[in-house]
Each structure stands twice: as structure tokens, then as C-alpha cells.
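The protein record minuted underneath.
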Amino acid sequence: MITAWREAWTGRLLLVGMMAVTVLPFLSLFVTALHPSGTYPPGLAWPSNPQWGNFLRAFEAANMDELLISSVLIVLGVVPISILLGTMAGFAIGHLRVIGSRALFLTFVLGLTLPFEGIITPLYYQIRDMGLLNTRWAIILPLIGLFMPFSVFWMRAHFINMPEELSESARMDGANVWQLFRRIHVPLAMPAISSLGILLFLWTWNQFLLAIVLVDDPTKRTMSGALGAFQGQWGTDIPLLCAGSLLILAPTLAIFLIFQRHFVKALLQGSLKG
């Protein structure tokens, strides 16, 4: 009885500690964003005269209305195509088990180990030779390719656990491979597909490195690329930078709160299926 009581309180204390570690950076951002522009706030000190207008100034300084439209266009260019290609490849590798599927899967798994930072230089020259530098395609096309290993890995984990009897029954009713995929397996895979869509949206929306390196025009970058507007040649406006960061985080937090049930289900699904 005493052991159970101790375990319960230890678990609660750990949860409170983890919550504090998670919330503290957001609290620091919020407090710093309320200090006068151009100052260097000390720690978590609450300002004597909170500058709530910093959020509006940050929105205007970074042209976030244009960046919001640009981010939506980039997300629309990346997420649907990545989901479509990842679902089809995951079905072929995980359920149809086409010739060479194991080698293909291992190739995609190796792609998961590829860091963005390690390929940014050759990617820059390749995009430049294609004539796509300083366009939104310079972000969309690399992201589709870079998201493909995870998309295939994610969808394969779903399709490999689908019972073979389901496909055999559909084939006996005269369904070909395309009908089997579109009418039987895609509707059953909607939870996995929606979870993948949420993850890809968050990663695309928060993409910073590709937007900064491959696109010079700030209005063609993602929302995260707006952070460069607060860094000058001789210094950085810390309060406006924090206010801008919170504005950029707002849409992703809203998406997470709306779809948090799907997000948690996605994480549990990924931990259970191999």
C-alpha cells in the first residue's frame, strides 16, 4: 500500500517537473515579448509597462500576412503530394510486397538518417541549376523528397498489418489492384493518413533552413522564415523576435489543439506497429 502511494506521488512529481520544463520556454518567450522594443530583458522579469503592441509591430515588420499566404501555398504543395506518394509506396511495399520491396524499404529507412543540414549545399546548387532558386518550388520539391522516407515508413507500418484475407476477398469479387487500393485499403487507412498529414503540416509550416538558404525573397518563404526580419547587421531586436516567434507558433498550436486526439493516436500507432 505504501509502495503504491510512493509510486503514485513519484509519478505525479515527475509529470509536474516535465510540464514545468515544457512550459518554461513559452513563458520566457511571452514575458520577453512584452518588454520595450530594442531592449535586452533580464530573465523572466515581468515588465513594468507591458508592450502589448509588440505583437502588432512584429506582424507588420515581418509582413506576416504575405508569409501566411506563402506558407499555405507551400503546405498545399507539399502535404497532399507527400501523402499520395507515401500511401501508394507504403501499400506496394507493405501489402503487395512487390519484387525488391525489402531493398526499397531499407533504402527509404536509410533516407531517414539523412540530415537536412548535410545536403543543403548540394541541394542549393541543384536547385540553382534547375532555375528554381528564389521560388516556392525551391522549398516544395526538396521537402516532398525529404519527407518521402518517413511517409513510406509510416504508411508501410499500417499496410503491413492489414489482413491478407481482406484483399483475397476483394479479388474474388473482381477487384483489380487499383480498386483494391482506392476502395478497400485507403478508407481503412484514413486514421494513419490523417495522422501523417498532421505531422507533415507541422514540419512544413516550421521549416526554416530551406526557406532561408534557397529563397531570397522574404515574401516567398514560410512563416518561420519571418524570424530573419528581426535580425539586423549590428544586433537583434529580442522582444520583437519573441513576439514574432509566438505569432508563428500560434497556427501550429491551434492545429495541435484541434487535432490532438489524432496526434496522440498517431504517436501510439507508431509505437505499436513495426
Summary: The CA atoms of residues 167 and 180 lie 7 Å apart. The two ends are 37 Å apart (CA to CA). The first helix runs from residue 2 to 33.
